[in-house]
Amino acid sequence: MDRVTGRVRAHQLVTVLLTVAAWEIAARRGWVDPLFVPAPSATAGALVRIAGPALAALADTLGKTALAYVLSVSLGVVAGLAVGSVRLLRDVLSPYVIALYGIPKILVLPWIVLLLGYGTSPAVLYGAIHGFFPIMVLVMGAVRDVDRTLVTVAQSFGATPLQIYWKVLLPAIVPSVLAGMRLGIVFCLLGVLVVEMFAGVRGMGHVLGSFANGFQAPELFAATALVSAASIAIVLALDSLNERLSRWRA
Amino acid sequence: MKVALLRFGLLAAVLAVWELAGRAANPLLAVPPSAVLPALRDLLLLRSYPDLPASLWLTVREITAAYALAVAAGLATGLALGMYRLAGRTWGPMLAALYAVPAVVWYPSLMLFFGLDVASKIAFGFLLGFFPITLAVLAGVRQVNPHLVTVARAYGAGTLAVIRRVMLPSMLFTLVGGLRTGLALCVIGVIVGEILGAKAGMGALINHAYGLLRTADYVALVLVTLALVVGSDVLASLLERRARAWTE
Description:
heterodimer; A: mainly alpha; MetI-like fold; globular; B: mainly alpha; 10 helices; elongated
């Protein structure tokens, strides 16, 4: 760690500490209404109180997210490869794919809930839809931009179509797949949480929603902090995995 | 030509399958396109939801307020973090880490704090739009040639003049991209907020139709909301094109 990095780290630590301190003072002095903005100490107390059920709910949410994630990564990569590599498919489908990527998915959520009811399946489906499009769009673009000469050379050396996908296209798009996986996890988690808030009976989204409805601000803040920490940890873990893989590629 | 034909054919095929499947299925759950059209007509003639114009107008105002706040705060934060290197290196990564949290986890807190009325929707739209705008401004500031800033300063330009005359023109390209993404996310934020709990606005109408199983009306309302989303993006893309033409 060089000197500047050390100073940056120190500043970050000071920022966090000052924010927490100012917030605690503001809450204790009554500058903010503790009914809506509880002090950090109250939030920490609430975190201890709700830890058991909140962690169970978090596990439930993360389980659904994992399922949605596996679906969206596998389907997104396959669809992106197929549509990106076949010229006609790409020309015909890409406006539709871009349009579907762009529209707010929340508009179809009521219909999904109507069809699938309350529970795990709408959350998994909606999370998977959320993650699918960014991954597919990234992979599609990456396949389109693969150097044509590589494909031509492989073909002239007699590679079968399967070999071209497996040995030329797939390795070439690995960075985009990794970028898509990094983006996709946040989208999947977002989708699952939205469904749990909208029509959930379990999971972290439902927990957050019911704390808000019950005006349990300390518990709400604690639960929010827990989900945020979990998602930051997941993204950081994916980032470091990504870095390790790209070092291995290089 | 062939491509356009195939695109059109695909759309027609999807609609046909939807029509057949919709007729066969439970009418409360699936709505064939032939049932959507009358519902859309009733909606647009204000027969099914007389307060459609008021709701649409409310949603538009919420989006406008959220976007105005997001642009102002995003520009200010991005410029401040970009111009003071230590601040940027300290708080930039912290902002990026917060961006990795799915934003909807903040929504219950915003709802508790701002209530069920327009304020919580504006706050959520603002939150979603703020991050891409700030990050785009931050990236844009890093593209500005520092010599230009030094020269402008040497000729006695103040901070505001440097921002207006030197920095904004040379980062415009990145900036307008961020502003467009920001608008799309503001729109999504307001709509998500309304659907997760609102008393008025398009989301409230959608929830009403869904809650009463008026599925055809629900689809019609979704189409109207989609028109709003697409319209805002078309507007943004026109502005983006003009800004790009101006820089070249």
